[in-house]
Give the backbone structure.
Amino acid sequence: MENPKQVFYFADPMCSWCWGFSPVVAKLQEEFGDRLKWALVPGGLRAGNREAMDPDLKEEVLGHWQQVYQVTGQPFDFSFEMPEGFCYDTEPACRAMVVMQILQEERRFDFLRLLHHAFYSDNQDITDPHILGLLSEAMGVNLEQFNPLFASKEVREQTNNAFLFSQQMGVQGFPGLIGQDATGYARLTNGYATFEQVKSTIQKWLEGSP
């Protein structure tokens, strides 16, 4: 019988707190095993941004990275040397997540972790479709499959629908977890939280006492 309880994980590949939350999600999935079904929703943190990064924005971003590093210990390359004219547009990486869910759904969480690691730890520009293709290839996806899907109208629409779903669900910050069962939806976390904090919240929800 299909498990009636599901957790939606709203995340963005270019959200530093989502990178910090990555080990928490992995541990939660291990902790609760087949008691929960997991859905992954691309968040669209800065989707469609067309402004080239200036020194002030870079300083602001690096400040967030320092906070995440201090709280979580996740690795960062603080040099953050992106190409000239780099725009912090998270839509392409989110779209790559959708492609992966189509081609290799069972590896969608692994791919998100790979995107995080590439951007934050390896200083790779994951707004670049070429880089995204190479990362998908590292997950065993054929570029002849990835590239047409990535460029397709269908996948663009699915990505935009994911952003819309995030808004409709009232997700105001990433990472976010929302549970769903026969009675409806329950907000499990809005923003970063520790494993113990989220574990306790999910246990209460599973027991029917949020």
